[in-house]
Specification:
By secondary structure, this protein is an alpha+beta fold. It has one domain (9-171). Helices cover 35% and strands 16% of the residues. It contains 3 helices and 6 strands; from the N terminus they run αααββββββ.
Length: 172
Amino acid sequence: MRKEKGFSLIELLIVVAIILILAGIVGPNLLKSRMAANEASAAASERTIATAEVTFSSTYNNGFSTSLVALGPRAAGTAASSTAADLIDSTLAGATASTAVKGGYFFVYTTGATSPTTSFSLVGIPANSGSTGTSTFCIDQTTAIKKDPQGSVTTATSSGCPASATPGFRPM
């Protein structure tokens, strides 16, 4: 009789069981790490847009931009202008004038009604609360990022983020 070489069914089942146990331990931690990375990216994106707003205001002497698109890239072969300032990338500039999506977050941009625009607010909302993030972020003309760890506050006024006394948003 020849002895067959290979693994027995029991050995294979034990290996599969060990892999499943490890996946059960690592899976939730991986989701938490991804959410933390998305939230850090959202805060950094808000900081980038606020810095672009300050640069826009000082460059064009006409207050803050009226839309995210105005901060976005210029067309090839053209100079930067107040309608395409080339201060942020096309992802942050968004598909519409007031909304962008990046890193699992929606960004909603609002400006004041005055001309020149003297105020703006940008709210970052998780695209899928609980899987892409849980916190909501807000930044306005004061350039201070505020965070609502519960994600319950999802809007801001045209004059800026809600005050820190408002339930929800707190300075970071």
